[in-house]
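We were asked to recover a plausible sequence for a given structure. The inputs and outputs are reproduced exactly as logged, with field labels preserved.

PROBLEM: sequence recovery
POSITIONS: 143
GIVEN STRUCTURE:
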């Protein structure tokens, strides 16, 4: 008799926990993301010599692989994307969008390979792009 009661209690507790589990796991994710564009952000594409040295060092360490990085000096926000090692030269990166929403900055780029028939250096390359924009206290979403 005692065993039946404790099994019933155990089943009841498991049922309650199962019903309450979704509330505990979604507590931090209640903020809705609003990805509607408020405005395009103005930005400058930087040459290597204009990238802050501390940020450039991190980029150099990560350039072998795909990377998505941000850096700030409290006045400017630097956004970098790298496409890892490529077998030849002749690659470029286009910025498709860089815009502000209520919750974040959205940044979208495309890697453009060499054209057919284009003469390219037969040496590995590490295409990456760094932009600079005004510092905003927003997270960056890479698309």
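RECOVERED SEQUENCE:
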């Amino acid at each position: 008799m005692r065993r039946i009661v404790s099994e019933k209690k155990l089943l009841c507790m498991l049922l309650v926990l199962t019903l309450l589990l979704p509330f505990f796991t979604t507590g931090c994710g209640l903020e809705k993301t609003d990805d509607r564009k408020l405005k395009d952000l103005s930005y400058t594409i930087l040459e290597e010599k204009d990238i802050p040295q501390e940020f450039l060092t991190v980029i150099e360490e990560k350039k072998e692989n795909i990377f998505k990085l941000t850096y700030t000096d409290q006045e400017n926000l630097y956004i970098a994307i790298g496409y890892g090692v490529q077998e030849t030269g002749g690659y470029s990166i286009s910025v498709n969008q860089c815009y502000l929403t209520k919750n974040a900055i959205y940044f979208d780029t495309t890697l453009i390979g060499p054209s057919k028939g284009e003469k390219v250096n037969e040496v590995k390359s590490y295409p990456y792009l760094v932009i600079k924009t005004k510092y905003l206290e927003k997270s960056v979403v890479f698309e």
